[in-house]
Design a protein that fits this description.
Strand content: over 45%
CATH architecture: Sandwich
Number of domains: 1
Distance between the termini: 24 Å
CATH topology: Jelly Rolls
Shape: globular
Number of helices: 1
Radius of gyration: 16 Å
Structural class: mainly beta
């Protein structure tokens, strides 16, 4: 299998209320240097990045980065695939189809698309593989070197393929952590995001 290069890139909790929305996972453009822009279409070639948190979190916002502008009126598929012994399964824990709330030109050929959705809970130490792709159109995913291990998981025809060294998927997750009153119930000691790195 080969990667198709497009162009060079310039939760509801168990108890208690939640704090205001905050950046939970940051593989955004400020976390490294842009790699390339990759063909990214749901059901074709698409990519998913492994995430794990040290505490239970509620995720309700996904920020997608592309080298293409003008995608705001298109429908995307947002998914978090379940882990299968260290590799992503073909089964999502969460899956949404949505149109971006906004599009922002960040400069240097990078465009940010923001999606919001109801709270989705990712449990402490639960590995999920998040991804976002275009439904019936080219969504042109940006990569970034390298807040993580410089690799991401490639899917082909909705089947997991292999881990490829094209840089990490450029994306961000926003949401909330339980308020202090519910920390004891959920066993929280503060939010810690663990990012896997190559051995």
């Amino acid at each position: 299998m080969t990667n198709r290069l497009l162009c060079v890139g310039a939760l509801m909790t168990a108890a208690g209320s939640a704090q205001a929305n905050t950046l939970l996972w940051d593989y955004g453009p400020s976390q490294g240097s842009p790699s390339f822009c990759w063909s990214n279409t749901n059901g074709g070639q698409e990519f998913h990045e492994d995430t794990v948190f040290g505490s239970t979190v509620q995720i309700n916002e996904y920020h997608y980065f592309s080298c293409f502008s003008g995608l705001k009126n298109n429908t995307f598929q947002i998914e978090a695939k379940i882990d299968n012994a260290g590799t992503p399964s073909n089964t999502p824990k969460f899956a949404f189809q949505d149109v971006p709330d906004s599009e922002t030109d960040l400069g240097n050929g990078i465009y940010e698309y923001v999606f919001t959705f109801p709270n989705q809970q990712q449990n402490a130490n639960e590995v999920l593989y998040w991804g976002c792709s275009g439904i019936g159109f080219e969504a042109a995913l940006m990569g970034v070197y390298s807040p993580g291990n410089g690799m991401t998981w490639q899917f082909n025809n909705e089947q997991v393929g292999f881990q490829t060294s094209i840089g990490d998927t450029m994306f961000q997750l926003y949401g909330a952590v339980p308020a202090p009153g519910s920390a004891a119930v959920l066993g929280l000691g503060g939010l810690v995001a663990s990012r896997r790195r190559r051995a």
